[in-house]
Specification:
The complex is a heterodimer of chains A (826) and B (214). By secondary structure, chain A is an alpha+beta fold. Chain A is built from 20 helices and 36 strands. Among the domains of chain A are: 175 residues, Aldehyde oxidase/xanthine dehydrogenase, a/b hammerhead (Aldehyde Oxidoreductase, domain 3); 136 residues, Aldehyde Oxidoreductase, domain 4. In chain A, the strands form 10 sheets. Chain A has a 7-stranded mixed sheet, sandwiched between helices. In chain A, strand 25, helix 14 and strand 26 form a beta-alpha-beta unit. The longest helix of chain B is centred in the C-terminal third of the chain and has 21 residues. The chains are: A alpha+beta (826), B alpha+beta (214). Bound molecules: FE2/S2 (inorganic) cluster (FES) (2 copies).
């Protein structure tokens, strides 16, 4: 995906373009990977079934031997059913939403009805007297918002209100009803300030200022945030010219002069809210000097660290438990304002406090995908080779920064001259948060339509053009080449008709779009594997399961090393007391956790072999774990059930903790929490749509989603995630849109009856094809898929819309109004 | 499933006390103030005693057991199950009848427990997700959900299972379209729909065969 010098010299096919060479000077290259003793290791590299080759990598000395392809494995790569499935279908799975502790109090927030105001006074006396109320707390600092670079630019006892629905105070009472009633008794005196809720208005010179000065917005582990130190004028912050450290390069002006074809257009996308079915929530239990937090989160460590920092507690006094998280999609990091309030109230009341957002607040303040206005201009030669890409993008994440439109412009296609400018526009609206491939979904919507348009202009097939320009030689590009072929066959691309072929009012079309996402690894990922004297095996890591199946893949990887079944392994996540684990964001859990788990399991298995060997009068190297048994290599008759062998060996307990090693080839760049590979994750999606040109109703009938995620650990769960990505993508393309009332600043559809999301009736037929691609980078070679599966869908639907109607739809969502407007364009 | 708000469908033996009527009767909001008198009069004249606002005794047939609790009459069935009885398998996703996460069975019909007053469940057999399996033996739909990965985060799952199980019980010959219809009121943000369809049809097929043999 990026050009960084190959440390092991195995990428014979990579032919970096000039542009990419220039780009290598951009991001700081981290130090060489894996210091310490190492060995040269021959490994398989390539797409299984499409030509593998052998490469040599330098790997740490104690790294387990490479795994063969999945077909030769027993547990990894198998469609194992979710190990916690029974808990979920019986209602036994306990989410934060369900946590009920003895003496637990119910928290209720007081929200500002005004979109922009200074708070003059707050009177909590009546609420404090209300029967059943145990504590009241006034918000003193606000999380999940951009911060003034100079905090002194604003004075006042209470944080300024910058969006309708911003929390102001909270109460804890012994019943939900008492909490609600008491919260209504809190009197807040506001001094209203002028507000602005639309991006177009906010960009105007004389628009009301959301912030009185320049701001900063740090990223969460899920992405989002904005780079530090950018200029800010009024509500407009930017430009960011190097999203995720990628770009700019060359000279676009010169590029356009050399271009033979130029395609230019403006695209607009809407604000989408996350709508996890379990809303944000936290139960805080401050007892004596120990703080226990039950959190619906995508990263237990982010909750622990933020709580420890804000309450000045050592990390060993904060424990975070997250047994099950009911979806997150990027928005659930840290303690949030609700959690901050819960902790304060718990400390005051000396009792556990439950604070869970209701559905309205979830829409308003739980996070969202920012909107965008993108002006994209692409110059090319008649043969399709790109010469220049220029982008100017504005987006609003409300009171939070991070409304960029991704990095695809500099990384997906070969192009020597690229210049992007991405701006944040502040509005008086709830804060954005990372959302399933933040930015990239919006960016690809415009870029992939532009590439389609270019193909049409130069009379080239849309797939052929992509084959010509998607040539970085990185793993994601190699995967997409294969994916285009497989997908085209499956969907019947060769039968695709010219745009606007249908004569009647109902028009059908087929479109394609490509996906690209970063392949990233969570640094500091560990796993402990433990074998007890009775032969039971457990694995621990402080990661969590937000619906992806973390426990199951963890068990599968550990089971493989012991020749056991996944269900024989106790797989434990969701507790900050376990060894540090990855965030469930950035599609990084599988890529980060499974190598650490395998390394730990491998060491346990080898030590166990040494302890068991005397029983068999064999050498440890000859001990084999397979099919639930222990045996000596070549002597099937020696086999003994695993548990019996462990018992007989006299082992009481043995355990190993191992880390996720750096990718064998190293990284293109690193932050304290994550490292990004020069390789990406690909994906190609094809969509078939039906457009009713009289009513403006669009239906997506079929999606063929062809994806890669390195080595799939569990194809069944992977397929589920791809379904999820596609369905969210269709939902984004066709229906979802937050509507704010400009007058009051309130969201008009902050519920699930008016905020339309794809339901059972609108789900297209989805066919998934999954590659097995071995990149020879880690001990499992697994990568993620959650975000890649969501990147291309809206663009594929839009390209299908064009193929159906002969008109471009450049505004999302494809509601009847937007569709009819698009059909009217000439 | 269209979440049922039982207002328009009086069951015999049931005092007519819907959530809406209760709030109206209790004069819970200023908007309804003018209606208070009429509603209160109607209630006294029409027969069933007006309950509340203080807690009253409520007897329920819940998962085959009789449960007696003190509940304030404004309590929804979802609140009673979750907050008073600690049965948190039933989820609340919207609390306004729009997501079906809270689906339970009243007799053999599905109902949105967030839109059903606990007192309205008197005289009916309430089945929740906790009561669907027979001991350790999962309902065929539950098993099929696990096998076909019809769940991701699992938060919508109990509700989905209740609706799909009701469908399979009612119509073991159900078609894909029937399944889509049965879960059309359910919201799943993770996108499990394709596998929910697959699982339910598989369970229907299995149970259809089972029944055919016996
Ligand atoms: S329908 Fe009852 S919680 Fe949504
Ligand atoms: S499985 Fe997560 S909402 Fe349905």
């Amino acid at each position: 995906m990026q050009d960084v010098k190959d440390t092991t010299g195995t990428q014979g096919t990579a032919k970096p373009s000039d542009g990419q060479k220039a780009q290598a000077a951009g991001p700081q290259k981290p130090p060489p990977p894996n210091p310490g003793p190492s060995r040269e290791q021959a490994m398989q590299y390539g797409i299984v079934g499409a030509g593998m080759k052998e490469v040599t990598r330098r790997v740490p000395l104690d790294e387990p031997p490479p795994l063969p392809e999945n077909a030769k494995l027993k547990s990894i790569g198998k469609p194992v059913s979710r190990l916690d499935g029974v808990e979920k279908v019986t209602g036994r799975a306990r989410y934060t939403f369900d946590v009920q502790l003895p003496g637990m109090l119910w928290g209720q927030r007081v929200l500002s009805p005004l979109p922009h105001a200074r708070i003059k006074s707050i009177d909590t006396s009546a609420a404090e007297r209300y029967p059943g109320v145990r504590a009241v707390h006034i918000v003193e600092r606000l999380l999940a918002t951009a911060k003034l670079r100079d905090p002194k630019a604003e004075q006042g006892r209470y944080p300024t209100v910058r969006y309708a629905g911003q929390p102001v105070a909270a109460v804890a009472a012994d019943s939900p009803r008492a909490a609600e009633a008491a919260a209504r008794l809190i009197k807040v005196e506001y001094e209203p300030l002028p507000h602005v809720t639309t991006i177009a208005e906010a960009m105007k010179e004389n628009a009301p200022r959301v912030f009185p000065g320049p701001t900063e917005q740090p990223a969460t582990a899920g992405g989002g945030g904005a780079p530090p130190g950018l200029p800010q004028k009024g509500n407009v912050r930017g430009p960011d010219t190097k999203p995720r450290g990628m770009g700019p390069r060359g000279d676009v002006e010169k590029g356009f002069r050399e271009s033979e074809v130029v395609v230019e257009a403006e695209y607009r996308t809407q604000v989408q809210t996350h709508v996890p079915m379990e809303p944000h929530g936290l139960v805080a239990d401050w007892k004596d000097d120990m703080l226990t937090l039950y959190a619906s989160t995508q990263w237990v460590a982010s909750v622990r660290d933020e709580a420890a920092e804000l309450f000045e507690l050592p990390k060993n006094k904060v424990r975070v438990i997250s047994d099950f998280t009911g979806g997150g999609f990027g928005a659930k990091y840290g303690i949030g304002n609700y959690g901050l309030l819960a902790i304060h109230l718990s400390r005051k009341a000396r009792a556990p406090v439950r604070m869970v957002l209701d559905r309205r607040e979830e829409h308003v303040s739980g996070g969202n995908r920012p909107n965008s206005i993108q002006r994209l201009k692409v110059g090319a030669k008649r043969d399709g080779s790109l010469v220049a890409i220029q982008l100017q993008a504005y987006g609003s994440g409300g009171v939070a920064g991070g409304a960029g439109v991704g990095f695809c412009h500099s990384t997906l296609y070969e192009c020597p001259n690229v210049h992007v400018e991405q701006y944040d526009v502040f509005t008086n609206a709830g804060p954005c948060a990372a959302f399933r491939a933040p930015g990239q979904v919006q960016g690809i919507f415009a870029l992939e339509q532009t590439i389609d348009e270019l193909a049409e202009r130069i009379g080239m097939d849309a797939l052929a053009l992509r084959a010509k320009i998607d040539v970085s030689g990185t793993d994601d590009a190699l995967a997409r080449a294969q994916e285009r072929k497989l997908g085209a066959d499956k969907v019947g691309w060769s039968k695709r008709r010219p745009a606007g072929s249908d004569k009647g009012p109902i028009k059908r079309g087929l479109g394609v779009a490509q996906s690209q996402w970063v392949y990233l690894v969570h640094r500091n990922t560990s796993c402990e594997v433990r074998v007890s004297g009775d032969g039971s095996v457990e694995a621990f890591s402080a990661t969590q399961d937000i619906g992806t199946g973390t426990r199951t893949i963890l068990a599968q990887v550990v089971a493989e090393e012991f020749g056991l079944r996944p269900e024989d392994i106790g797989a434990y996540v969701g507790d900050s007391r376990y060894p540090q684990g990855p965030a469930s964001g950035g599609s990084r859990v599988t890529s980060s956790l499974t190598p650490a788990a395998r390394n730990a399991a491998h060491r346990c298995a080898r030590e166990l072999a040494a302890r068991i060997a005397p029983l068999f009068e064999a050498s440890a190297d000859d001990i084999v774990f397979a099919d639930g048994k222990v045996s000596v290599k070549g002597k099937a008759s020696s086999a003994m059930p695993f548990r019996d062998a462990v018992k007989k060996s006299g082992v009481r307990e043995l355990s190993h903790r191992a880390d996720r090693r750096d990718d064998y080839e190293g990284y293109a760049m690193s932050t304290p929490d994550m490292s990004i590979s020069r390789h990406g994750i690909g994906g190609v999606q094809f969509a078939e749509v039906e457009v009713d040109t009289e009513t403006g109703i669009v239906k997506v009938e079929r999606v063929v989603a062809v994806h890669d995620c390195g080595r799939p650990i569990n194809p069944k769960l992977t397929e589920s995630q791809i379904f999820g990505g596609v369905i969210q993508g269709v939902s984004y393309a066709l229906y979802e849109e937050r509507h704010l009332d400009p007058g009051s600043g309130h969201q008009l559809n902050a519920n699930v009856d008016q905020y339309k999301i794809v339901g059972s009736r609108e789900v297209p037929k989805i066919e998934v094809i999954l590659l097995e691609q071995l990149g020879a980078q880690s001990s499992t070679d697994a990568r993620g898929v959650a975000e890649p599966a969501n990147v291309a869908t809206a663009a594929a639907v839009a390209n299908a819309f064009y193929n159906a109607t002969g008109k471009r739809i450049r505004t999302l969502p494809m509601t009847p109004a937007n569709v009819l407007a698009a059909l009217r364009t000439t | 499933m269209a979440p049922s708000d039982d207002d328009s469908d009086p069951k015999p033996l049931l005092p007519k006390l819907s959530r809406r009527a209760f709030f109206t009767g209790a004069g819970a909001s200023a908007l309804t103030a003018t209606l208070v008198q009429t509603a209160a009069q109607a209630a006294t004249q029409a027969g069933p005693a007006v309950l509340g606002p203080e807690p009253s005794t409520l007897q329920l047939d819940l998962n085959g057991r009789t449960v007696i609790v003190q509940a304030d009459p404004g309590t929804t069935l979802a609140e009673l199950l979750r907050n008073q009885l600690g049965m948190t398998g039933t989820k609340v996703g919207c609390d306004r009848g729009a997501c079906s996460a809270c689906t339970v069975w009243l007799d053999s019909e599905v109902a949105a427990s967030c839109m059903t007053l606990a007192f309205d469940a008197r005289g009916r057999k309430v089945t929740t997700i906790e009561g669907l399996a027979r001991g350790d033996e999962l309902h065929p739909v539950q098993r099929a959900f696990v096998e076909n990965d019809a769940l991701q985060c699992g938060f919508c799952t109990p509700g989905m299972v209740m609706s799909c199980a009701a469908l399979v019980e009612r119509n073991p010959k159900c078609t894909l379209d029937d399944v889509k219809q049965a879960v059309s009121g359910h919201l799943c943000r993770c996108g499990t729909y394709p596998n929910v369809f697959k699982a339910t049809l598989a369970a229907a097929q299995a149970s259809g065969k089972g029944k055919g043999k016996s």
